[in-house]
C-alpha cells in the first residue's frame, strides 16, 4: 500500500470539501477499496472517511419508503430493515461474512457497482432513489455499466430511499469462490407493477428483465416466467459459468424469488 | 480403557493452547535486531527472454540496501530434483536447471527474477516497481498436449521435447498387460483430468536469513516441513554452506500439505542477501505471491482402461498419464506421478496385470509437486472412477464388483504387479463397516425425501489404499531417490526424571507434541506431562527427514520406540546394580524397574537420578547419563486402507451439489490418539471435497493465472462440508514397525474425490441421465448443469 493522508470529516459538507482536493477518494467500509490499495491497484493520496458522519448512518421509515444512510453497514441494514423490508434485510445479511457486513456499506457497494454485487439488484429492483450531496438519481439512471455509475467526481451517496413493495424476495446463487452473486435476482411486486433486477449475469452489470416484469405483472406466479426465453447473448461468461448457464440461473432464480416473495 | 495420556487416549492437543491464544511463534513473528526486508520481483509473463534488467533507479530509492538478480547467483548451484526417474528406454531423465532467481528466461507468471532488500517492506516493494526489465515475451506453453506436440517451443532448452521422462511401470510387464487386454471380454475406458490444486496453507511461506559475520554461521528461519532436508539441499547443492555452519529452524508452521517440503529459491536468496549486507533479511510471502509461487499439486491428464470378464473380475489395468511438472522441477516433482502413483495402481485389488505409463511434461506454469496424498489420490481417483464405470457397463453393483476383486485377508503378504508388497490388510472389513455405517437400507427413503424437494440423491463408493511411512531407503535408492528416508529421535532423560524427546519429524498442525508424548508416556510409564517434544531446529535435533507422506508416526514414532528400548536397556543395567540383582532378572513395567518375583524395585525417576548422580552406579562398565538416539529405517511401506461413502443431493435446475452424508471406514493400524486421527480424517475429507467440488487452478492460454486469489479459487468452507462419520475400528496392525501404526494424514484427501464424483454420477444416472459417464473435477454447479443440459 502506498502512503496516503486520512481525513475524517464529521459532516457531509466537510466531506465534500475534503474530496475536492487532487487525488482524494471517499472511504466507506473499505471492503473494496482497501484490498485494491493493498494490491497497489489503487493509490489515492487522500482518503476521506465517511465513517464518522452521523447524518449518513442508520435506517428509518419515512413517507418515501425506507431510507438507508449511505454509510450504513450491511449488518445494520440486515438487523434494522427486517421489520420494514424483509427482502432488503435478507439481502444485506447474505453479503460476504460477518466482518464484511460489519464494515461494508450500502453507499460503497452502490458507488462501486460491481457486476456481481447484491445491493445494485435491490436498488434497481425496488426502483430506489439514490440521494447524493447534490441531487437525487433514480436507480434506473444510476447504474451505467461495469463499475460505472452516474456519480460525478467527488459526489457522495448520502442515503438511498427504497419504496416498499407489497411482496419481494432476493435469490442469490453464490459464485463458489468469492460468494458474490454468480447470479442474483431481486423481484418486487408493487401495486402498479413488478420489477425484476438481475445482478451477476449481465455483461453491462445489473439490469431489469423486462419480459419477466411484464409476465409477472399480469400473473405473479412462478409459472409465469416458464415460457420466457432468455437469451445467453449479453450474459457474462467466465470459469464459474458460461453465458447459457447464467441465463438458466436467471430464470430458475426468478421463479424461486417469485415463489418466496 | 487406555491410560490417561497414554496410547489410545484422546488426549487434548497441548499445542492448541498456544495456537488458540495467539502465542504461537511463526516465522513471520520472529523479528531479529537490525533486520531488513526483502521483496521479490516476479514475472508478469508466462514465458520470456530476459534481455536486460536495469536496477539503477531501484538502487537509488529510499531505504534500498541491495538489489539482486539472477546474475548474482550464477556461481551458486541450482535447486536439484530429489529423485532421478528413468525412462522406459532406460535413459535417465532430463534435469533442467532451477536457479535461485530466474536467469536468462522467465518461465512462469510469478517466477522471481529480482530481489530488493530495504529498510522496510514498503520501501522494498516500491523499489521493485522501479526495476526496469526488458523481457521479450515468448509464446506460453500451457497445455500439456501442446507442449508434447510442439517441440520447437521449449520451456528449457535442455529438455528438447518438453518431456522430462517417459516412464513405464513395470516396463517388462507391458506386453503381458497388452495381451490381457486383447483377449479380455470387456474393456472399460475413461479419460479424466486430476485437477491442479493450490495448497493454500493458512500460513504463507516466510524466511529469514541471518548470517553472523563474527562466526561465519548462517541461520535460516523458514516455513518448512523438514528443516534437515532444507539444510541438506542448501548445503550440498545450492549454496555449498557446510552443514555445520548452517542452522535451519522451522518454528511453528501453519500447515504445509506438501508445499513446505521443498526448498525454494527465496530461502537461498535471503541467506545470500544477509551475507552480503551483514544483516538479517526477512521475507514474508503474501497470499497473491503464494498462489504464484507455492508448489501446486496434482494436474494429471489420464486415460485409464480396465479389462474384465463379464462377471466383473478384473483382468488388467492400463493407464497413460501426462503429469504436469510446471516450469521447473520441484524437489519431489518426479517421484509423485511415478513411485507414489504408478505403484498404487493395483489398489486393494488382485488385478493380475497392471501397467502404468507416465510422461512428465514441462509447461510455463507454477511448479507442481507432492500435495496431501501425492500421487496416491491420482491413482485412487482413476481406479475408483473406472471401476464404477465398468460396474455400470456390466450391470454389477458397485459394492459387489469391488468385493469380488479385493485381495482377501488370507492372501497377505501380497505382492502386487506394480512392485509393492502389502504386509497386511482387510478390505472386506472396512467395506462392511462402511456399509453398516452408511445405512444403505435407508437410502431409498432418503432419495424419496430428496425427490420431494426437487433434488436428485446419489450414493458414491470408493475404496483407497496408500503406501505411506516412506520409505525403505535401500529400495528408494534403487528407484532413483537421492536421499535416505529413515527418521531419527533422541530421548534425553534429564536428571530429575523429566524427558526431552528430540524428533526429526516436524509438526505443522498434526499434533505431534501431544501424540509423541503419549507414546513415550506409555512406553516409559511416565506422566505425559513430563515429556517435552522438541522439533524443527537442526541445531537441536540429531537428524530427520521431516513430515510428509503420513510418515511421522510410522517412521519417527518407530525411531522413538527404538530409542526408548535403549533407555530401558540401560535403565535395567543401572537397576540391576542398585538392586544387586542380575540384569536378566530385572523387569520393566509401567515406569518401574523391579527384580522378577520380588517387590524390590526402583522407579524410573530414581534410575534417571542415579544416571546423572552416579554415586551408586556401575561406573566401570557403564557411562553415566541417560540419553539415547535411534535411527529407524522402515522395512517396508505401511498400507493403510479404507472405504468411503458419499451421499449427495444434486439440484437439477442449478447443477449445485450438496454433500449430505459422508462416511469413512479406515484401517490405520494401531491408533495412538483417536481424536487426532479423526481430526486428520476430517481435514483430509474437507480437502478431498475441495478437490472434487470446488478447487481448481485455471490458467488462460497466455499462461496467466486466472485463479490468483480467493475471489476465483474456491477453498472449502465449513458449510461446504457435512458432518462426517469417521470410523477406524477395523485394525490390522502394521507387521513391521514396533507400533503397528500405518499413518492417517492423507487418507481423507485420497479416498474422498472418487466417492464424491461417483455419488454425483450415480445421482444423475438415477434421474435418467445415463449418457453422463464422467464429469471432470471440480464438479462446479455450472459443469454439472452443463453435463445435464449442455
Ligand atoms: C470477502 C468479501 C465478500 C464480499 N461479498 C459480497 C457479496 O456477497 N455481495 C456484495 O454485494 N458485496 C460483497 N462484498 C463487497 C462489500 O459489500 C463491500 O462492502 C462493498 O463492495 C463496498 O462497500 P464499502 O463500504 O466497503 O466501500 P469502500 O471499499 O470503502 O469503497 C468502495 C468504492 O466506493 C466509493 N464510495 C464509498 N462510499 C461512497 C459513498 N457513500 N458515496 C460515493 N462513493 C463512495 C469509494 O471511494 C470506493 O471507490 C464483499 C467484500 C468482501 C471483502
Automatic annotation (TrEMBL), chain A:
It comes from the Bacteria. It holds the Pfam family FAD_binding_5. Gene3D superfamilies: 3.30.465.10, CO dehydrogenase flavoprotein, C-terminal domain, Uridine Diphospho-n-acetylenolpyruvylglucosamine Reductase, domain 2. Residues 1-167 form the FAD-binding PCMH-type domain. Keywords: FAD, Flavoprotein, Oxidoreductase. The keyword Oxidoreductase applies. SUPFAM superfamilies: CO dehydrogenase flavoprotein C-terminal domain-like, FAD-binding/transporter-associated domain-like. GO terms for molecular function: FAD binding; oxidoreductase activity. PANTHER family: XANTHINE DEHYDROGENASE SUBUNIT C-RELATED. This is Carbon-monoxide dehydrogenase medium subunit.
TrEMBL record, chain B:
Residues 21-139 form the Aldehyde oxidase/xanthine dehydrogenase a/b hammerhead domain. It comes from the Bacteria. The keyword Oxidoreductase applies. It holds the Pfam family MoCoBD_1. Keywords: Molybdenum, Oxidoreductase. InterPro entries: Ald_Oxase/Xan_DH_a/b, Ald_Oxase/Xan_DH_a/b_sf, Ald_Oxase/xanthine_DH-like, AldOxase/xan_DH_MoCoBD1, AldOxase/xan_DH_MoCoBD2, AldOxase/xan_DH_Mopterin-bd_sf. GO terms for molecular function: iron ion binding; oxidoreductase activity. PANTHER family: ALDEHYDE OXIDASE 1-RELATED, XANTHINE DEHYDROGENASE. This is Xanthine dehydrogenase molybdenum binding subunit apoprotein. It comes from Cereibacter azotoformans.
Amino acid at each position: 500500500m502506498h502512503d496516503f493522508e486520512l481525513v475524517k470529516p464529521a459532516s457531509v459538507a466537510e466531506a465534500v470539501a475534503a474530496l475536492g482536493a487532487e487525488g482524494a477518494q471517499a472511504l466507506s467500509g473499505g471492503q473494496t477499496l482497501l484490498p485494491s490499495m493493498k494490491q497497489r491497484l489503487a493509490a489515492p493520496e487522500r482518503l476521506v472517511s465517511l465513517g464518522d458522519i452521523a447524518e449518513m448512518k442508520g435506517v428509518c421509515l419515512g413517507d418515501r419508503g425506507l431510507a438507508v444512510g449511505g454509510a450504513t453497514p450491511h449488518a445494520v441494514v440486515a438487523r434494522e430493515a427486517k421489520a420494514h423490508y424483509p427482502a432488503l434485510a435478507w439481502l444485506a445479511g447474505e453479503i460476504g461474512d460477518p466482518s464484511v457486513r460489519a464494515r461494508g456499506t450500502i453507499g460503497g457497494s452502490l458507488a462501486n457497482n460491481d457486476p456481481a454485487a447484491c445491493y445494485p439488484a435491490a436498488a434497481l429492483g425496488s426502483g430506489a432513489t439514490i440521494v447524493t450531496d447534490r441531487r437525487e438519481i433514480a436507480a434506473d439512471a444510476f447504474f451505467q455499466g461495469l463499475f460505472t455509475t452516474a456519480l460525478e467526481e467527488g459526489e457522495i451517496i448520502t442515503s438511498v430511499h427504497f419504496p416498499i413493495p407489497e411482496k419481494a424476495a432476493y435469490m442469490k446463487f453464490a459464485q463458489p469462490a468469492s460468494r458474490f452473486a454468480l447470479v442474483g435476482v431481486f423481484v418486487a411486486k408493487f401495486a402498479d407493477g413488478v420489477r425484476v433486477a438481475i445482478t451477476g449475469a449481465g455483461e453491462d452489470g445489473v439490469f431489469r428483465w423486462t419480459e419477466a416484469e411484464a409476465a409477472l405483472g399480469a400473473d405473479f406466479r412462478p409459472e409465469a416466467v416458464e415460457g420466457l426465453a432468455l437469451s445467453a447473448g449479453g450474459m457474462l461468461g467466465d470459469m464459474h459459468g458460461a453465458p447459457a448457464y447464467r441465463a438458466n440461473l436467471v430464470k430458475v432464480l426468478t421463479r424461486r424469488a417469485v415463489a418466496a416473495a | 480403557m487406555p491410560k490417561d495420556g497414554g496410547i489410545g487416549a484422546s488426549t487434548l492437543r497441548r499445542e492448541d493452547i498456544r495456537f488458540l491464544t495467539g502465542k504461537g511463534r511463526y516465522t513471520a513473528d520472529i523479528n531479529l535486531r537490525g533486520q531488513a526486508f526483502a521483496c521479490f520481483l516476479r514475472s508478469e509473463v508466462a514465458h520470456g527472454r530476459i534481455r536486460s534488467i536495469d536496477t539503477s533507479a531501484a538502487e537509488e530509492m529510499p531505504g534500498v540496501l541491495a538489489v539482486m538478480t539472477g546474475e548474482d547467483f550464477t556461481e551458486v548451484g541450482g535447486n536439484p530434483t530429489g529423485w532421478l526417474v528413468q525412462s522406459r528406454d532406460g535413459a535417465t531423465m532430463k534435469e533442467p536447471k532451477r536457479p535461485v532467481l530466474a536467469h536468462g528466461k522467465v518461465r512462469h507468471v510469478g517466477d522471481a527474477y529480482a530481489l530488493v532488500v530495504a529498510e522496510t517492506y514498503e520501501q522494498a516493494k516500491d523499489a521493485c516497481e522501479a526495476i526496469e526489465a526488458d523481457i521479450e515475451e515468448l509464446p506460453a506453453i500451457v497445455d500439456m498436449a501442446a507442449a508434447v506436440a510442439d517441440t520447437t517451443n521449449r520451456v528449457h532448452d535442455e529438455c528438447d521435447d518438453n518431456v522430462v521422462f517417459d516412464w513405464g511401470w513395470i516396463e517388462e510387464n507391458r506386453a503381458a498387460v497388452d495381451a490381457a487386454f486383447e483377449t479380455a471380454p470387456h474393456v472399460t475406458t475413461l479419460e479424466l483430468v486430476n485437477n491442479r490444486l493450490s495448497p493454500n496453507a493458512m500460513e504463507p511461506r516466510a524466511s529469514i536469513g541471518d548470517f553472523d559475520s563474527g562466526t561465519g554461521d548462517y541461520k535460516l528461519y523458514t516455513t518448512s516441513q523438514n528443516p534437515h532436508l532444507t539444510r541438506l539441499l542448501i548445503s550440498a547443492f545450492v549454496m555449498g554452506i557446510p552443514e555445520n555452519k548452517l542452522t535451519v529452524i522451522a518454528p511453528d508452521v501453519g500447515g504445509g500439505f506438501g508445499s513446505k517440503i521443498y526448498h525454494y529459491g527465496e530461502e537461498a536468496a535471503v541467506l545470500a542477501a544477509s551475507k552480503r549486507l551483514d544483516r538479517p533479511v526477512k521475507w514474508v510471502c503474501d497470499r497473491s505471491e503464494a498462489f504464484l509461487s507455492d508448489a501446486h499439486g496434482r494436474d494429471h491428464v489420464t486415460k485409464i482402461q480396465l479389462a474384465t470378464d463379464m462377471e466383473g473380475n478384473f483382468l488388467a489395468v492400463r493407464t497413460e498419464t501426462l503429469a504436469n511438472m510446471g516450469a521447473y522441477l520441484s524437489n519431489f516433482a518426479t517421484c509423485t506421478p511415478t513411485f507414489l502413483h504408478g505403484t498404487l495402481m493395483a489398489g486393494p485389488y488382485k488385478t493380475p496385470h497392471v501397467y502404468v505409463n507416465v510422461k512428465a511434461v514441462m509447461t510455463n506454469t507454477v511448479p507442481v509437486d507432492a500435495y496431501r496424498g501425492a500421487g496416491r489420490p491420482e491413482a485412487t481417483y482413476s481406479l475408483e472412477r473406472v471401476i464404477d464405470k465398468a460396474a455400470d457397463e456390466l450391470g454389477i453393483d458397485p459394492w459387489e464388483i469391488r468385493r469380488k476383486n479385493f485381495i482377501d485377508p488370507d492372501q497377505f503378504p501380497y505382492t502386487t504387479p506394480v512392485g509393492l508388497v502389502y504386509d497386511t490388510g482387510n478390505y472386506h472389513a472396512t467395506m462392511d463397516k462402511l456399509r453398516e455405517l452408511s445405512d444403505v437400507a435407508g437410502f431409498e427413503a432418503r432419495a424419496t425425501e430428496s425427490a420431494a424437494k426437487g433434488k436428485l440423491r446419489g450414493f458414491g463408493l470408493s475404496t483407497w489404499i496408500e503406501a505411506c511411512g516412506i520409505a525403505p531407503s535401500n529400495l528408494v535408492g534403487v528407484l532413483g531417490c537421492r536421499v535416505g528416508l529413515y527418521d531419527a529421535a533422541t530421548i534425553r532423560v534429564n536428571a530429575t526424571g523429566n524427558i526431552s524427546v528430540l524428533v526429526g519429524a516436524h509438526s505443522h498442525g498434526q499434533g505431534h507434541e501431544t501424540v509423541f508424548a503419549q507414546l513415550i508416556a506409555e512406553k516409559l510409564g511416565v506422566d505425559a506431562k513430563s515429556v517435552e517434544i522438541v522439533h524443527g531446529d537442526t541445531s537441536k535435533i540429531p537428524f530427520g527427514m521431516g513430515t510428509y507422506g503420513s510418515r511421522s508416526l510410522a517412521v519417527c514414532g518407530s525411531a522413538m520406540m527404538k530409542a526408548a528400548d535403549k533407555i530401558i536397556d540401560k535403565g535395567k543395567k543401572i537397576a540391576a546394580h542398585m538392586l544387586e540383582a542380575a540384569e536378566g532378572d530385572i523387569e520393566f513395567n509401567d515406569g518401574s524397574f523391579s527384580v522378577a518375583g520380588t517387590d524390590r524395585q526402583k522407579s524410573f525417576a530414581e534410575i534417571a537420578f542415579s544416571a546423572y548422580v552416579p554415586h551408586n552406579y556401575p561406573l566401570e562398565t557403564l557411562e553415566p547419563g541417560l540419553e539415547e538416539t535411534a535411527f529407524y529405517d522402515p522395512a517396508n511401506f505401511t498400507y493403510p486402507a479404507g472405504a468411503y461413502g458419499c451421499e449427495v443431493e444434486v439440484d437439477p435446475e442449478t447443477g449445485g451439489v450438496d454433500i449430505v452424508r459422508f462416511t469413512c471406514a479406515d484401517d490405520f493400524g494401531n491408533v495412538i490418539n483417536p481424536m487426532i486421527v479423526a481430526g486428520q480424517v476430517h481435514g483430509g475429507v474437507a480437502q478431498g471435497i475441495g478437490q472434487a467440488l470446488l478447487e481448481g487452478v485455471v490458467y488462460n492460454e497466455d499462461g496467466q493465472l486466472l485463479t490468483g486469489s480467493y475471489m476465483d479459487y474456491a477453498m472449502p468452507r465449513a458449510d461446504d462440508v457435512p458432518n462426517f462419520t469417521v470410523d477406524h475400528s477395523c485394525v490390522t496392525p502394521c507387521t513391521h514397525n514396533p507400533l503397528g501404526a500405518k499413518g492417517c494424514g492423507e487418507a481423507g484427501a485420497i479416498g474422498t474425490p472418487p466417492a464424491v464424483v461417483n455419488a454425483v454420477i450415480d445421482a444423475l444416472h438415477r434421474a435418467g441421465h445415463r449418457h453422463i459417464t464422467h464429469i471432470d473435477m471440480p464438479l462446479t454447479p455450472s459443469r454439472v448443469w452443463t453435463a445435464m443440459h449442455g
